[in-house]
Amino acid sequence: MKFAIIAAGEGARLIKEGVNTPKPLIPLQGTPIIERLVVLFASQGASSINIIINEQQPDTLQLLKRLQEQYPINIVVKDTQSSMHSLYALSHLLRGERFCLTTVDTIFKEEEFAEYIKAFKSGSSDALMAVTEYIDDEKPLYVDTDSKLAITAFSDTPTASSKYISGGIYGLQENALDILEQCINGGNERMRNFQRSLVANGLNLKAYPFKKIIDIDHAEDISKAEEFLTE
Predict the structure, then answer these.
(1) 3-class DSSP state of 3
(2) Phi, psi (rounded to 5 degrees) for 45
(3) How far is CA 110 from CA 15, 82, 115, 139, 215, in A?
(4) CA-based nearest residue to 42, from 59, 67, 17, 25
(5) Is the dihedral angle over the CA atoms 157, 158, 161, 167 positive or is it negative?
(6) Which residues, including other chains, have CB under 8 Å from residue 30's CB and lie 6 or more apart?
(7) What percentage of the chain carries pLDDT values higher than 90?
(8) In sequence order, what are the beta bridge partners of 210?
(9) pLDDT digits (tens, 9 = 90+) for 55-76
(10) C-beta neighbour count of 106 within 10 angstroms
(11) For the chain, which domains are there?
(12) Which of 57, 87, 193, 201 is most buried (most C-beta within 10 Å)?
């Protein structure tokens, strides 16, 4: 099974709030968040860990090259206009196996993640999407599900069927990449529109609830994430 990390964002909000460390290098419990993900993915038997960073991250690139000596890492250095385009830039490395994708600033408990990967490996759905009831996001993506946690829609506003929001962890089969290519060719943007296209194309998407997932978007989120991991 392959893994992927999107770390090509600029971290503009963090910079504006005085955080000068590149987002992938922000330490939690003494370890840069991108290294934490690499180690975690390797512990789950990753056949490859495919990472995209932007062209303004020489320090992140240096760290990844050091980690490459120990872990099966592929690095893409490219500026992209959205997370969906970052995934597309990695897509040639992800074919041939199912894969798990996350953004670099998605913080979750290792134990929950291990159970999630176990469920994804043993399941037959086209996609297993991490979701959570914990909302601490400026623009959450609401996930509509039925009684068996099949995903029926993704919404910008809550509905009667949206108990959860997207957690930013995506377990996908290879067929999702064909729909991704359709989105790119059709001029679509944003990861949430790609997710909507998965539903529209009839793929079998299931939700997997996490108790809590935190995104590091603002300076205050760093302390929140640190506290969360030590709970």
Answers:
(1) strand
(2) 80, 35
(3) 28, 27, 9, 25, 15
(4) 67
(5) positive
(6) none
(7) 90
(8) 132
(9) 999 999 999 999 999 999 999 9
(10) 21
(11) 2-230 (3.90.550.10)
(12) 87
pTM of the model: 0.95
Strand 127-132 vs strand 214-215: parallel, antiparallel, or unpaired? unpaired
Q: What span, in angstroms and rounded, lies between the C-alpha atoms of 45 and 23?
A: 25
Rounded Cα distance, 222 and 20, in Å: 13
Cross-strand partners of 132: 165, 210
DSSP secondary structure of 165-215 = EEEEEEEE-THHHHHHHHHHHTT--SHHHHHHHHHHTT--EEEEEES--EE
Query: What backbone phi and psi angles, to 5 degrees, belong to 76?
Result: -115, 125
Measured distance CA(117)–CA(93) in Å, rounded: 20
33-43 helix and 58-67 helix, angle to the nearest 10 degrees: 30
Length of the chain as a residue count = 231
Picking from 101, 102, 118, the residue whose alpha carbon sits closest to that of residue 45 is 118
Tell which residue, 98, 114, 131, 126, has the closest CA to residue 208.
131
Please report which confidence band the pLDDT of residue 78 belongs to, taking 50, 70 and 90 as the band edges. very high
Tokens encoding 33? 């968040």
